[in-house]
Amino acid sequence: MKAMARPLIIVGSIVVIIGALLPWATFVLNDGPYPDKATLEFFDAPFGLSSFRLYLEILGLAGLVFCFVPLRDKIRVLKAVGWGALGVALINTLFIIGDGGGFGAVTVADGVTAFGGIAAVIGAAVLLYGAFQLPAEPKVVINPKLPFWAEWLILLVAFVALLLLITETLTAGGHSGVSDPYIGPLFLSYLSAAGALLGVLWAVGVTKWISDMSERHRIFSIVVLVACAVAVPFTSLGNDYWMTITANIGVYAATAIGLNIVVGLAGLLDLGYVAFMGIGAFVAANLSGAVAAEFGIRLPFLLAAIVAGIVAGLFGAIVGSPTLRVRGDYLAIVTLAFGEIFVRVSQNNIGGLTGGSNAIPNIPDLSLFGTGFNDSLTIGGVQLPSGVLYYFLIVVLVALVMFVFGNLKNSRIGRAWIAIREDEDVARAMGVKTGKLKILAFMTGATLAGLAGAVFAHKLATASYDSFQFNQSVTLLAAVILGGMGTIPGAVLGAALLFVLPEELRQFSDYRLLFFGLALVVIMRFRPQGLIADRHRRAELADQDVTGESLDDTVIKEPVAVAGAKEAGA
Amino acid sequence: MSELASAAPGATATTPTRPLLEVRGLSVAYGAIEAIRDITFSVQAGQIVSLIGANGAGKTTTLRTISGLLRPKRGEILFEGRPIHTQPAHAILGMGVAHCPEGRRLFPRMTVEENLQLGAYTRSDDGVAEDMERVYELFPVLGERRGNKAGLFSGGEQQMLAIGRAMMSRPRLLMLDEPSMGLSPIMTQRIFDTIRNLRDLGTTVLLVEQNALAALAQSDYAFVVDLGRTTLEGTGHELLADQRVRDAYLGES
User: Fold this and answer.
1) Is some CB atom of chain B closer than 8 A to the CB atom of A291?
2) Is the ipTM of this complex over 0.90?
């Protein structure tokens, strides 16, 4: 079949291009911003391509071009194009079928024919199949020698492009978010196309190159990343809706990084982690001067947040203490029980500190120089949406948590945690005080969660037991595992995906959790080490073309090493 | 290389004084089951001392108890005359007893260098980098591939790394559990050469082996462990010549 690779790719690409130009639906799908050209006849509006059709055209053309130009690692490039095209075509076809009431919507109905969707799906499948027939090649590594300012410039461009890509992805299909009935498929189409773009960049070695560069210029990268985060309110995400969503993502990202210490570094499975966030939230709520609070005192926010962190940390130490005796599954059960105890206690207002089912509402808004954090803000003539100060506060929180995590991970303590995760007995034999360190892991994670909880309570203006249920713990754990255990960007990406996807998939209301679960299963099947893998985990889980470091290299190196051993022995 | 063992007393193989390690009447139980009942032996400084015996005789349990990973039910363990069986693992390591566990038990996803760093975990002095270089001198293969993941190495290389990792704590007593396990005869010979080399540089070695023939040939002194008890002792050559040992452990009948 190898010889057929090229013809298959060419045919597939052309069919994708033609499919995109054919009508897709036998009825008008036009009430919202779904591409009004869902029923487009090419000859009506030859240059009026937009949205998913535009992506398909671009991907089809890319398939043709990449097939002919000389290119290293063609197989990975074309696989990325093929998967992207298949994703876009399938999502929209299925949506039209679902929304239009059956196959009639994409075939023949009422004398109207529309085979665009089916053609595009078939074309993309052929293209992808052809790509798989290409010969395997070693992973491309590019590493040009550039002066440092050129590398800085490239990094700057890359991060800004990333920021734009993210904002575009999030707002694909309208900025309003909630009311738009087409946001689901539009968002997923954009995600597929963006995924294909990233896949191509990865295949030609660009992503690895950029990430290596950012590793070399760590400080600079961090500054640019923070600047990008601060710039978000000035982009198309600068409205109330997205300020709330991004602030939520930030809070959960900070919490996920805290959980990453416990699970990702020390390898202790914690199924009740969100309770620590809840403790932080309730402590902050009680010290906020809210009417419903038990204590009538109002501490400055910074102080209240610190107290919240400390209290949560103490609970972390208490919950962590069984880790001295129990391991693995048993520890998971202990933490699960703790999470449930927390929910029951706060739901029934035992001790009177949680407001029970009434929660603690009306937590006073924070303010800075007389500006409430929920007010909108005007800087240099630019009107920023309300909630922007909370957003900035949460950026600071995430940066702080990242700083703590990054320093701990590369410290002696971090090494000891990783050793405990890998082999607790040997860690003890190496002199690691495993008991103390495990409790320390729980404490640190809980403190960070407590801090995040304090911010969360103020942002929501409410602290309710309902926000800290078991499913939140599971989602956080999924965020850590999905993103990649033991890495910062992994936890942030995981939290972003897990807390944004449900928003974007509102369209599919009843099915969204099903899709969501399926997506998780698929990702874990094909990328068990998480989206952004820690290099320790990568070593064990990598199989041939999942990551840059393939085990193929090892096979080649092994005989050399054995020869080396013999020489050394002689 | 000599600095690797700088903390060790000079080789005293020829003039036995107070033993470096004494184990007296040691008994260890897993729940109700006694894994070892009455283990008594001593290790003279500067020697290679072996515990040999069949699978399940209690050799590994003995080492794990000495290094503080298990608590004895009865008996005592003295290191340089001080009781250590009540001390936690990190304190025992700090006194100079390093344990290189059975099956090597490296951190497979960490690099050679990170494994060695963990071996020096209890140390706070600044000689760690130097000692690491010495391990690389001792095992050039490790030095060449110091950035590679430990899990990708061959069995023999992993054993070298395990020994190197244990040496990073600058032990006076190095306990090796089945270092020849799963290795080819050539590689086994290399590992034993290394062990003798370490002994000559001043590190006392307590060796646990099922491979009795190889172990006895290399040992200055040895004890036979049978069903949780020490039954015979003698120099390596005496035991090699002993008919009972030959019958039971050297596959002659």
Assistant:
1) no
2) no
